[in-house]
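Progress narrative, work stream C.
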Amino acid sequence: MASQPRLPSELTDLAIEDLRFEGTTLAQCALVCRAWVPAAQRNQFSKLSIHERNCTELIQYLTSATRNVAGYVRCLRVHLWGDLRANLNRATANRTPLLHLLLPHISHFTNVRELELDGCRAFAGRQWDEIWTDLLASALGQSLTHLTVHYLDFEDLPDLVDLVSAFPQLTHLTAEDLDIAEASHEYSNEPQEPYNGSKTPPPLLANIKYVSGRSFASGGGPFLRWLAAGPQAFSTLYLDLDAEAGDVNAGVELVGAARDNLKTLFLNFDDQWGFWEGFELSGNSVLRSLVLRSITAGLFEVLRSVSSPLQHLSFGDVEELDSDAWRDLVDVLMSPSFASLVRIDFYVSSRKHVEDLENEIKGEHPEFFERGIAFFGKHFMCSGPKAYFVHSSSTQTPP
C-alpha cells in the first residue's frame, strides 16, 4: 500500500505556531503523530511559571528525565517564596525559598529569553541573596533579553545593580515596587546615596519600565540615575513615579539622558512638590508617542517644549480638567508644533460617562475636533503603555 503524502515539517511547525493553540489543544496536537511533537511541545512549554505547588515535582522531573522539555521554555516566571498572594490562608504558603531550590537545576533551561522574578515583598519580608545573581548569570547570562523584577527586597543598591548588569544582552527591563534596605529612612524623598561602583547598564538596554515602590518602600532614585549614566540608548520609557519615594527628579534625568533615542514615553507622577517645574522635552528629538496618565497645569509647559514630530498623544483622567484648562490644552495642541499628530486620545475614568464629556468638549471647541484625529475612551490601570487603555464602543482602535 502506497504511503500517504506528508507535508514538510516546516509547514506543520509554522501552522502550529501561527494558530496559537491553547495548552489542551497543543497536547492533542502532540498525540497526532511524531512529526507534530516538537512544535507542539515547543509552544506548550514556551512559558513556565514556578510556584510552591509545582516546584517539587518540577525539580524531580529535571533530575530524573533523560530528555526533558526545559529546553523549550523561553519565558520563565519564578515566585521566589511561593505565590503568597494566592495562598495566604493555605498550608502551602510556607515561604519556601523556591529560587534557592531551583538554581542548582537552572542549567536545564537553555533557551530562556525572558525571566520574571516575583518576590511578593509585602508578604514575604525576605531579601535577595546575592549568590543567586551569580548562579543566574552563569546559566542565562548570554541568552536573557528581558528581565522583570517585582516586589523584591535588596540589602543595598549594588545588589540590584549587580543583578541587572549580569545580563549583557538585556534589551527590556521592568522594575516594579522594589525596596532597598540601606536606602530606607523616615522621609524617603530625602537625598539617597548614589551608586559608586564600576558596573554599567547593559549596552543594548532600550526599553525600561520603572514603577516606584509603594507601601513605604525606599525610593529608587539612585538606581534610575545609574541607568541614566549608562549607554543611554533608551527608545521606550514607562515611568510611574512617586514623589514620596524621591524618584521624580531621577526620572527627569533619565528622560533627558535618552535624548535623541527616545521614541515612546509614558509618564505618571505625583507633582505635589512641583518637582517637574522646568522639565522639558526639547532634547528628545525623535519622540513619536507620548502618554500622560494624568494632566496638571504644569504639563502645558512640558507640551510647549516638544520639538519632535509627535504622531500619537494620550491623556488620562481628562474629566479632572476645568474649562480654562481645556482651553489652554486645545490652544497648545492646535499650534503648528503639533501639526504632525495623527492621533490624540482622551481617556475618562468611570466617574463620568465618556459620551457626555466628548459632546461637551466638542461643543466648546469644534475647531479642534474638525481635524478628525481626537477620540475619547475609558481607561484603567494596566501593565504597560500599549495595554494601558481600553476603548469604549464609540471610539476607534488606536494605531
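Work stream C, second folded protein:
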Amino acid sequence: MFDRYEAGEQAVLVHIEFPNEGDREDLQELEMLVSSAGVNALTIVQGSRQSPHAKFFVGSGKAEEIAEIVKIHDADVIIFNHELSPSQERNLEAICKCRVLDRTSLILDIFAQRARTHEGKLQVELAQLRHISTRLIRGWTHLERQKGGIGLRGPGETQLETDRRLIRGKIKNILKRLEKVAKQREQGRRARNRNEIPTVSLVGYTNAGKSTLFNRITDSDVYAADQLFATLDPTLRKIEVPDLGSTILADTVGFIRHLPHDLVAAFKSTLAETREADLQLHVVDVADARRQENIEQVQDVLREIDADDVPQLLVYNKIDLVEEISPRIDRNDEGRPIRVWLSAQTGVGCELLLQAIGECLAEQMFDENMCIPPKLGRLQGALYRLNAVQKESFDEHGNWLLDVRLPMSDWQRLKKEFGEQITELVV
C-alpha cells in the first residue's frame, strides 16, 4: 500500500510524445497543472513512442529509468501527462516503489482543492468516485486473493466487493442531491426567462482571464489568479447593457485539453448555464502562442455538452501584453460583432464589449409594433403572459396597438401556435 498523494509533495513528471495528434498532450500545460496543484516538480522525464506500452505505458526500459530517477531524487509521487489504465498504474507503482498519478487524477485533485460551494464539492466528489471505482483493486494487492476450497478464501476480494458496493451507494446518493440542485437551477433559469432577462455565459480555455473580465464588468470580487482552474463554481451577476437593460452574466469553469469525461459528466448541471445561455462570450488569451489550438479545444468541449449551437462572440483578452494591438470591435459582412479586442486587467476596451453584447442580443429580440384586432384577444393575452408588452393603446376601430419586445425564440413559438399570418399584424 502507498500513502495517498497530497498537495505539496515532490514529484517526477513524465511526458511522452506520440505521432498521433489525438494522443498528444502539452508539456507546458502539465507544468501549469502541477504548479496549480501545489506540487514541487523535481525533474521531467521525456521520451517518444509510436503507441503506449500495454504494461508500463512507457516501455520497460523507460520504466526502469523512471524508477532510478525516483530513487535518486527521493520523490514522493510520479505524475504522468497522460491517462493511464489501472493496470499500468499498478505495474509502474510496483517497479518504481512510488505512488503514480495520471493526468486525470491530477486534474481531479486540483478540482477538489478549488471547489467551494456545496454543488461544486458534490460534483468533484462524484467525478472522483467514478474514477476511483476503476482502480480499487490497486489498494488491496497486499491482501490475499479469494481462493477455492474450505479455509482458503482470503479477505481481498470480499473487501473489494464491499468497497465497490459502498462507492455505488455513495454515487447514487450524490446523483440524487445533484438532481435536486439542478432542479433549483432550472427554476432560476425559468424565472429569468419569465422576466425576460437574457443570460450571457463566459466560456474559454482555463487561465484565459474569464474571472478577471467578470470582475471588471460586474464590479465583483470573484477569485481570479494566474493558475489553471482558479474558478470552478458558477457565479451569476446582473449587469446593465446599453440599449438593452438588465442581463445576467455567468462565469463558469474553464476548459482544458482532454478534459476528463468524468468531470464533464459531473459538471453537466453547472455547464447547463453555458448550454442555456442566449450568448456565449468565448474569452481567448491573445498573448498565448497556442490560442488557435485553445479555441478548438473549447469548441470540442462545447460540442460534448451540446452547447455548440449557442450564438458566440469572441473576446480577445490580454491585449496589454501584446504590442500594437488596440481595443476594437471586428464585424462580419452583415455588420454583426464577431470579435472584441480588450484587456480585462486594465479595463481598456470593456465598454466596447458591452456595446457588442447589446448588439448581439438585440438581434435575438423581436422588437416591433403590432396592431391586433379584438378577435385575436388570445394572442394579446399570450403576449402579456410572456411580459412582452411594453406599451398599449387603441385605435378608432378598437384594435390593440402594442409595443412588443420578446426573445426571438418566443416569437417563433407564437408563430407556430397562431400561424404565420400574425406577421401581418406587425406595423
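Confidence is low (pLDDT under 50) at residues 1-7, 138-154. No further action is required on this item.
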